[in-house]
Amino acid sequence: MKKILVITLLLLVTAQSALAIRIKDIASFDGVRDNQLIGYGLVVGLNGSGDGDQTRFPVQSLVNVLERMGITVNRTDITVKNVAAVMVTATLPPFAKQGTTIDVLVSSLGDAKSIAGGTLLLTSLKGADGQVYAVAQGGVLTNSFSYGGQASSAQKNHPTAGRVPAGALVEREIPNVLSGKHSLRLNLHQPDFTTASRMAAAINAKFQSPLATCSDPGAVVLQIPEAYQGRTVEFVADLERLQVQPDNLARVVMNERTGTIVMGDNVRLSTVAVSHGNLTLYIKETPEVSQPAPFSRTGATKVVPRTSVKVSEDSGGLALLQEGANIGDVVRALNSLGVTPRDLISIMQSIKAAGALQAELTVI
């Protein structure tokens, strides 16, 4: 029987006064975001590990490439295994300028065994609007290999996907969303009424003016002051350094597959008594063979079943959790019962069902 290593992670959060976090870490400006790019291309130079004959679109793509270079070929005459059709994806960061480079991810689209050592041909990367924002080309790095014969094979990592570091060249810029603005909007990564209110108060206190208002729990609207008109970048830089104490819901997150449990500092309990005990049932089959003595004229060989049953039940204790108990009290009380993380999952679910857990219970 394989032993299961269970890791319990208990986040003991300190006082809120020590939780001041920069605005740039908990919010982002509206429109300042990454953009996804995608393209279709060919990887050449493979050592016989490319797409097979059953995958027809790589051959068609190769013929189209050759025709654009002035070489006319018959599609039925092409049988190559050094070419693989791939999908190329990349992330265009905000404010990327023409001529800057970004990494691209190359993934096999057909039945190629490996694209290690191949070269990505010039590929246009388009955005959701259909416009070309970058072009990619270069050697594919997979940090893997795949070799084998008819009877056995050896493989390391994933050989049908790789990266081209700095392989894409930005050709089109995203419009600057900050230029000419008289107002900005901050979007919270985790919408919360209290956090949005604290953020607006911190901004108004910093600039000594009612610049920030909360439109909803997920956004704070800012008016750019007169002193910063035409200097939006400086205003944003001063704004991002402000520190705010974020507020979160009381939540218990449990992963039953791994036995991981995460509880926040705001988790509270009503008065409840918890008793827990383990029941273990052990059944073992040990059949025995019964046969007659040597040279006996009668008797037959038979298999006699033998079953061993063992039942053990651990003595469970009783722990009393007073009303308003915090996460430390919960951990100490449940540890006194000698519970395991998997037992703790059942206990927390039972406490929630009893209405004594004043927190959101999430099972993933």
Describe this structure in words.
This protein has helices at 23-26, 57-68, 193-207, 232-240, 327-336, 341-353; strands at 21-22, 27-29, 35-44, 84-92, 101-108, 119-126, 132-139, 145-148, 153-156, 161-170, 183-188, 212-216, 219-223, 243-244, 251-255, 260-263, 268-269, 272-275, 279-285, 288-290, 302-304, 307-313, 318-321, 357-358, 360-363. With 364 residues, it is of the alpha+beta class. It folds into three domains: 20-30 and 178-244, Gyrase A, domain 2; 35-170, no CATH class; 251-363, no CATH class. Residues 1-18 have low confidence and may be disordered. The relative contact order is 0.14. The strands form nine sheets. A six-stranded antiparallel β-barrel has the order 3-4-5-10-7-6. A four-stranded antiparallel beta sheet has the order 2-11-13-12. A three-stranded mixed beta sheet has the order 16-15-25, covered by helices on one side.
Instruction: Report how far apart the termini are.
Output: 26 Å
| Radius of gyration over all CA atoms, rounded | 32 Å
Structural class: alpha+beta
**How many individual domains?**
3
| Strand order within the widest beta sheet | 3-4-5-10-7-6
The poorly predicted ranges are 1-18
Q: What average pLDDT do the residues reach?
A: 81
Number of helical segments with 4 or more residues = 6
Beta-strand percentage? 35-45%
State the shape.
Answer: flat
Largest sheet: 6 strands, antiparallel, barrel
Q: What fraction, in percent, of the residue positions are helical?
A: 10-25%
Overall number of strands: 25
